[in-house]
Write a structure and sequence with these properties.
The protein is an alpha+beta fold and about 100 residues long. The chain has helices spanning about 15-20, 35-50, and strands at about 1-10, 25, 30-35, 55-60, 70-75, 80-85, 85-90. The chain has a five-stranded antiparallel sheet with strand order 2-3-1-4-5, with helices on one face. A hairpin with a 2-residue loop joins strand 6 (about 80-85) and strand 7. The N and C termini lie far apart (about 50 Å).
């Protein structure tokens, strides 16, 4: 079992309610819990299925050099990239708005 954190943005109320069944919502859209990898994967599938146009990231304790791993889903400027076996985040450029 290991600690996991899920952060959602623009998630529909149905998903937020479903996550609150399994996890503690410590801030709006921020959920934590302590589950096995099997349960964590089941919860993440529920996030993917119920997210709609929102975005989410899940982080959990992992036995690697960083001590954690994470997955993302949905449109976001932060994109996971693996470099030399370590997962990092790169940023997409901001969209320019026309006045």
């Amino acid at each position: 079992m290991g600690l996991m954190v899920i952060v959602t943005e623009n998630a529909p109320p149905s998903l937020r309610g479903r996550l609150a069944v399994w996890l503690l919502e410590i801030r709006a859209g921020v959920y934590i819990g302590n589950y096995s990898s099997k349960v964590r994967e089941m919860i993440w599938k529920q996030v993917i299925l119920g997210l709609g146009r929102g975005s989410a990231v899940m982080a959990w304790h992992a036995p690697n050099d960083a001590g954690y791993d994470f997955e993302t889903v949905g449109v976001n400027r932060r994109i996971p990239r693996e470099m030399d076996g370590i997962k990092l985040i790169s940023f997409l450029p901001e969209k320019k708005t026309e006045d």
